[in-house]
Every structure is written in C-alpha cells, then in structure tokens.
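QUALITY CONTROL LOG
STEP: pairwise intake check
CHECKER ROLE: data steward
CRITERIA: each record must contain a sequence immediately followed by its structure tokens, with no blank fields

ENTRY 1 OF 2
RESULT FIELD BELOW
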Amino acid sequence: MFPPSVQSTTLNVIHQIVLFCDLVKKIHDPCATQLPRLIVMIVQDLVHTSHATLSSKLQHIHSRCKSSFMESKLSSIRKHPMLLPMLPTVEDARKTILPFISALKKVPVDTSSALGRVLADAIQAPICLPHWDNASVDGYALRAEDVSQASINTPVSLFLQEEVPAGQTAQKPVEKGTCCRVFTGSPMPPGADAVVMQEDTKVISGGSVLVMECVRPFEYVRFRGEDIQAGKQVIDKGKRLTPFDLGLMSALGITQCQVYEPPKVGVIVTGSECVEAGQPLPPGKIYESNGLLLQSLLVQAGANPCVFPIVSDELKDTTERMDQAIHECDMLITSGGVSVGEHDHIKPAIKALGGTIHLWRMRMKPGKPMVFAQLRGKPVFGLPGNPVSAAVTFVLMVYPALQKMSGCHSWDLPQCVGKLAHAIENQEDRHHFARVRMDEEGLIRLAEGRQASHALGSLILSDGLLGIPEQTRLEAQTEVRVIRWPRLGDF
C-alpha cells in the first residue's frame, strides 16, 4: 500500500479529473471526444511528480482550465507549462535510447570495398613506412663530408658511379669522392648519408658531377619507419573508414579488414492523405516526402535503407506492415501516427505486436511526440509526420543510435561554432531547435522562411540547427554551436 500522503494525493488526482470532465461536459466543447486520451496524458505526466507538489499542480491546472478553457481549448491544455517540465529532455531521451542499441556482427571485406564501413578490429602496421631509407628529392646521393665546402664559386667534382631509379637498389656502395644518381623514393645507396638537389648540380664530361651547394648529413633523406613503425596501431576500432584510411592500408599491403555489418533500416510512412510522387494528386491528398527524405539521411549515415509502401491510417494495415518490416530489418523508422488522434496507430501497433514503448514525447520543438520502442529486440523510432519534425528527430535521436549500431566509437553530431548576427529568444517551455544559416564570416541568423514544423522551405534554406533552451534569450554576438545538417562525407 502507498503511504497515507500518497493515497490522499491520488484521491485528489481522481477528484480533479472528475471536476475537469464535468466542466467539459457542461460547456459542450467539441474537443470532449479527446478526454480519455487527455486524462491518460495528465496521469502519465503527474505520476512522475513528487507527491508533495502533485496536489498543488493539479489545482493550478484545474483553476487554469476553468478560467481559460473556452479560449485555449484542448490543444492549449496539452501544452500547459506545468506538464512540459515532466517530459524528458533531449539529453534524457538519448540516455534512454542508447543502452538499447548494440553493434551488429563483424564481417570481412576487401579494402577496395571498405569505404564508409566501420572498422571492427584495429589495424596494426605489418611493415614500416617508409620501408627503407630513401631520397626525398631528385638529385645525387653522396657523403655529406665530401661536399661540406661546396659552393657556386667553389664546386666539388664527384664521380657518378651509377643511377638508381625508384623501384631498384644500388649495386655499389657510395665511397669517398663518388655519388649515385637517385630519384624521389629511390632507396639510399649504402655509404651515402645525404642527397644534393639536382638543381644544385651540373653534369660534366667524363662521367662526373659538379656539386655547387653543400648539404648537411641526412639532408633530403627519409628514414625507414619515420612515418609508421611496424607493429604500431594505425587505425582504431570503431572508425568509419575514409579514403585516407584505405590509402594507408594499401600502402601497408593490407587487402582485407573486419568491419561491422551496416544496419538495414526499414522506413514506413503512414497517412491516408499521402500519394507517391509522380502519381495524380486528387483533392485532399498530398505528395509524400518523408520516405525519400529519411532514405537519403540513412544513406548519408552509412545505413542500408528499405522503404516500404505508404500505409493508410488503419490499425490493421499499420500492424501488418510493421510486422513485415521488423522481420526484415535491423531497425525500423516510421513517420506519422505518433500523436493522440483517432488515426494515430503506431503505438497501438507496437503494443499489438508485443513491443515495449520506452519513450514517448520529449520537451523539444519541433519533434515532441517521437516514440522509441523495442519490437522483437530491435529498435523502433516513431517520428512525427511533419517533415521538419521528422528531419530534426532523425538528426538528434536516430543518428546517434545508428552510429552506435554501426559500431562507431563516436556518436557526436557534426557541429560548427559561430556568433549570432541578431538576438534570438525562446519564450516557450520546450527546448527549441531553430533552423539557422551561417555566412562566410561565421555569423549565424535564423533561416529565411517559416520555422513551422511542416515548412520544408526552411530546411533547404538552412545549414543546421541551433538549440535554444526554454525561456532563454540569446543576445547578438553570443558564441553558439550549430548542429550541422548531415552532408555526404560526414559519416
């Protein structure tokens, strides 16, 4: 049993909800059909609050509803500032999500096919780089002491005993008074300890070379292993392989490596109003955009997307498609159907399939109603249907999870630093992620176009997201960090 104080508070919860329902019935508001869902939302939020403050918060909500219900309607009550602080922050949400994510299995691949894959086993150098002492310029290998007094006015004559092209080795050691013609990368002949540049020499008759510049010992010589020593770890486990990594592996003679299997991610877009691009557009319908948007973001993140056909706003259709997708994929992303409307079926479908919902709604804008769940041991992200909300929640929530599932050792979002060109204020009780643009001087300003969650125009006119904490004003010239939109090559 609960302590008496908690029992008393619980009774007060019930009492306040009853009064609230009675109020709605009396004014015959059309939003009354949403009451059951609203009650569940209020209770879910309130049960996380300490019993010492629960009663006062309910009384505040009740009095607020009495005075302003006709003006604010149900949507305003949902956004009530007393409820929002009980929702998890973006950081809290990530802490909830990431423990449920694990890297996939290791697979061997040829280095020629490893670009963008995540290394599963660290790479150690099997040989030294360079593999031998070699010349860093075209010129003549010699003994530095033989030309210590050489100058343009007092050149030193040396006997040219042989030429060593790159890829060959000297047949004779360099002795006093002799030199050897070498090229960039040529192995240093035995006995030589320096190279004089070709520009500081002159070939004369009789097989001799005039050296018109002195050189110090080891000048223009690259030593064996000065770049990489054999046995050194050169590429860490968990790194997404770049062209430079592959070039290094090739230089070390490595032809195969172990990488993590990239995630296969299913994408399901819901909405009876959606029509595939290229099809006729009947009245009341819209062209679906989130499928291609999410597919492209997944490719940039190093995943293998699998986009399923659009699903209508029917629970049966939603459940069947999710059942199919979770069977075929390592992760599932849905778009739309995550709020509290009669046609929002993602959460009921997850529950019908035996899944567990770990997160629903966050204290952020846009993207508040995002869902994170597990279905048959696989992660499911239910993103909002508005395109901007879908893009923002993908970057902030799905991207770190994808990087961890891919085996990456870092899940940090790509960021850049700049200064605000003008003041920006967030008066709401949610962390606002505004679309911003950065100019060549590093000044950051709000992107042109509307900041609304449906406005695709604000995405293409922006460079990234600026997080503004709730009830915060950032003055002009404030140094801030911008989360950049993903670009090809970032991942």
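ENTRY 2 OF 2
RESULT FIELD BELOW
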Amino acid sequence: MFRTAVRKYSSRVGPKFQSLEQIKEYLKKPTWDTKMLLKGSQKSLEIDIPKLHRLLQLSGLCTELAPGKEGELLNDLNAQLTMMNKLEEIECKEFDLIETQHSPLKYRDIVNATDELKQSKKKGETGQWNPLELASVKSEGFYVVNEKLGKE
C-alpha cells in the first residue's frame, strides 16, 4: 500500500584508492600553490600610506605607528589584496547555490525560547540570587563595610 522512492547519488573524480599508501601519496602532491596567490596581477591595487591611515581611522585604531610597523602593515595588506584579486579571477562555472529552507529568526521567537528554558543546578543556575544574604552585616537593604580607605 505504501511506496517509498529512494534515490542514491554517486560521483567519481578519479580512480578509486586501493590502499592507505595511495591516499598518502596523493595528498603529498601539491595541486594548489599559495605562493601563486601572493604574486601580483595587472589589476592589483596598491594600498599606500594615506589609504592605510584611512583604514586605521575607520577601524578605530591609532594612526600613529612606528616606522617599521607601518611598512609591515602595508606589505600585509597588499599581499591580502593581491590574494583576494587572484581568488576573484577564478571562474566558478559549476557552482550551484544550495537553497535554504529556514525562516529568519524573530524577536518574539527568541523571547519565547528563553521563557521556556529551565534552570539547571548542574550548571550552577540556582534561580534568584540575593547578594545581601551573603553579607554578614547589613542595614536597611545595604551592605555595611567596616574598613577604612587609605593609609593613616
């Protein structure tokens, strides 16, 4: 009476590995060189000192740097920019965006989820905490401190 449809997918990239040694040998051979990504291309932009100061300003960081640190940051940023340009040049013809089935999280959902949470004594969640209960001396809802400030 009931029918179930089952589909099995498989794909093949190359010949099947026969042993662990074949896998290790395959992984030893580099197919992608990261140094290639750091070499400049025609459309690479250079980050200069005014751009560096502007980036630091926008990031909320101090723009007054030691002379060596400024050059180091410029080299790092230019290398990152070159790498990003190289990655952008790679064509992705066989790329399919995976469709998502979830709905966006709403404030009311978060409030409902936190209302349903139960306290766990294992985690140290003991309910209401009254810090005045820990005070040895208290008066009218306040701590009483019997110490002097400073040296006399």
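INTAKE CHECK: passed for both entries
DESCRIPTIVE NOTE, ENTRY 2: Helices lie at 20-28, 34-38, 49-58, 67-89, 107-115.
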